[in-house]
Specification:
The protein folds into two domains: about 70 residues, DnaJ domain (Helix Hairpins), CATH 1.10.287; about 70 residues. It has eight helices and no strands. Helix 3 runs antiparallel to helix 4, helix 6 runs antiparallel to helix 7 and helix 7 runs antiparallel to helix 8. About 70% of the residues lie in helices and about 0% in strands. It has about 180 residues and is mainly α. The chain starts with 7 loop residues before the first helix and ends with a helix.
Length: about 180
C-alpha cells in the first residue's frame, strides 16, 4: 500500500504544480516527462489505493489526486502552461483585465470584418495572424529558457499570450 504524505499543508502554503510534478520552472513542458510523472504520481496517491484507510487519509488522497489532474490538464495545454508559468513568475494575475494594444484591436476588427465579408479569405488571414504570434512567442520562449529573460521579455510574452488568447476566441467562434 503506498504511503500518502501529508501534503495538505503544502498546498495551502502555495505549493505549485511545478513542485508537485518535480518539473523545472519553464514555459514549455516536456510532454513525455509529464506523462511519466503523472502516472507515477497517480500510482502513489490515487484515492482507489486508500479505500481501506482512515477518512482523513482518503480525503488527502482525493485532494492530491485532484491537484495532480488539474496540474496535468494545465501542463498538457501549451497556452495554459504558459499562462501558469507567467502566474508563477508574477507576470500575470488570474482574472486581470489586460489592455491589448490599440493597433492589435484594430487588426482584429478588420479580421472580423474580413471573416464576415469573405470567410475563406478571413480564415486564411486568421491563420497568418496565428502563425505570426506563435513564431514571435517561440522567439521569446527561447530567451526565457536560456535564462536571458528580463522585464521586457516577460512583458512581451505576456502581451503575446493575451493577443493569442484573443485571436483564439475568434478562431473558436469560426469552428462553431
Amino acid at each position: 500500500m503506498p504511503q500518502l504524505q501529508n501534503h495538505k499543508a503544502n498546498y495551502l502554503c502555495g505549493m505549485n504544480y511545478y513542485e508537485l510534478f518535480n518539473l523545472p520552472l519553464s514555459p514549455v513542458i516536456d510532454q513525455a516527462q509529464l506523462a511519466k510523472k503523472y502516472v507515477a504520481l497517480q500510482r502513489e496517491s490515487h484515492p482507489d489505493f486508500f479505500t481501506k484507510e482512515m477518512d482523513d487519509e482518503r480525503e488527502q488522497a482525493l485532494e492530491k489526486s485532484a491537484d495532480i489532474n488539474k496540474a496535468y490538464k494545465i501542463f498538457k495545454n501549451p497556452d495554459a502552461s504558459l499562462a501558469y508559468y507567467l502566474q508563477v513568475k508574477g507576470v500575470i494575475v488570474p482574472g486581470e483585465k489586460y489592455e491589448l494594444p490599440p493597433a492589435f484591436l484594430m487588426e482584429m476588427m478588420e479580421l472580423n470584418e474580413s471573416l464576415t465579408d469573405n470567410p475563406a479569405e478571413g480564415k486564411a488571414e486568421a491563420g497568418r495572424f496565428e502563425k505570426e504570434l506563435k513564431t514571435e512567442q517561440e522567439k521569446y520562449i527561447v530567451q526565457l529558457n536560456s535564462g536571458e529573460a528580463d522585464k521586457h521579455v516577460m512583458e512581451s510574452v505576456k502581451s503575446l499570450y493575451y493577443r493569442k488568447k484573443y485571436l483564439n476566441r475568434i478562431l473558436e467562434r469560426l469552428a462553431d
